[in-house]
Design goal:
Elements lengths: L2 H13 L4 H18 L8 H8 L5 H20 L24 H8 L7 H16 L3 H5 L6 E2 L2 E4 L8 E4 L2 H13 L18 H12 L3 H14 L4 H8 L4 H4 L2 H16 L8
Antiparallel strand pairs: 1-2, 2-3
Helix pairs in contact: 1-2, 6-8, 6-10, 10-13
Amino acid sequence: MSNELEAFLEYITVTRALSARTVEAYRSDLMQIEASAKRSLIDMDSMLVLKQLSDIENKRTLNRKLSAVNAFFDFCHRSHFIHDFTKFKLAKLPRSLPKFLSFEVISRSLEQIDRSTWLGQRDYALILFLYATGLRISECLALRREDIEGVWLHVRHGKGEKERLIPVAEEALQVLQAYLDVIPFENDAVWLNYQGKPLSRISAFKITRKYLGVSPHVLRHSYATALIIGGADLRVVQELLGHASLLTTQIYTHIQKQNLKETVQACHPMAADRQ
């Protein structure tokens, strides 16, 4: 690993306080490029960098690596390791709506869960809680009992270590408390596995996949979609989701427009669907 790359990783870890998962992704992507070229990244010109990435067909993967490279060279420029640099343009991606589930679909799926066991209570509470809060799965699994403050949820381990408060629906709180009351282990962590240890991301994925056929992140999209369709202000949704930029939240406006179009088509007497 080059000295400049080591300094960059220390910067995003300490100064920017990015999550360990994000730092590891940067480290892995940038070290792969250095290993492929057999030289330090700071010694490469633009053409050589692009050559190392030329075999990547998945545009999202390519963009992730290009973003890492841009962040690295931007850091080097501001740290006076280099005089100037040309920012790499990211590949254009087809705009697609995030997948989401309606509350009716989620409710029907919850009926499949056998709640006669504490693990069943956990699965039921986890799915409902994710939908009721819109948490990232990493945020959800990091919750401690002390983070639940009445009807408020204190998210202490958000992306970039940013904290926020989220109001939680009474039904979700009741289901959560019912689960907490029957846990046969002593542990401050909210979500536990069958051994009484903190639940892993893989286990959480298996739970939502088993009952809903989707990843936990789809429940986050479902939460945001329900708010937008219900008329919530975009900036409020941004705050609730913990998005650093409003641009990230704006993808949900396409869902709102789609919903408006479907409403007109279904209800207006001049709409083609009613003729």
